[in-house]
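Lab notes, practical 5.
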Amino acid sequence: MLAREIENLYNQFRLNNYRSMFGRIREKDGSLSATEAYAVDVIYLLGNPTITQLAETLGISQPNATYKVNNLAAKGYVVKSVSEDDRRECRLQLGPKFYHYFADSNRFIDQAAEALKEKFSPEELETFTAVLEELIDEVKYKRRS
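Output from the prediction step:
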């Protein structure tokens, strides 16, 4: 039963994410394709990765990742920063356009948290938060060997 409820929660997050993502995708110059939207979201989740880290995370080739990053940079969603220590290394940062289009994507989480604060005591929420922290640690992305 616990696994089923965790899966249900995960599915609701996915649905909200897809609704938000596809609401931002438009058929015009400079807009993101679905694949690009996922790629920029992964860059956000990784927090300033290198192109190599992005390629490894997505399970794609380095040239393919470079191509995707160049497209995202050309559209203003990603900024490439060349490392001063190793000029071959390029860190990815999110561009202003990312924040403009993705700013409201987690509003539903804030609304849900506020609703929980009204329904449960601070002690119950503290216990719930501790359980969530453990759950996150259990499902945290770890490189599979």
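Observations recorded by the TA: The mean pLDDT is 86. Residues 55 and 65 are 5 Å apart (CA to CA).
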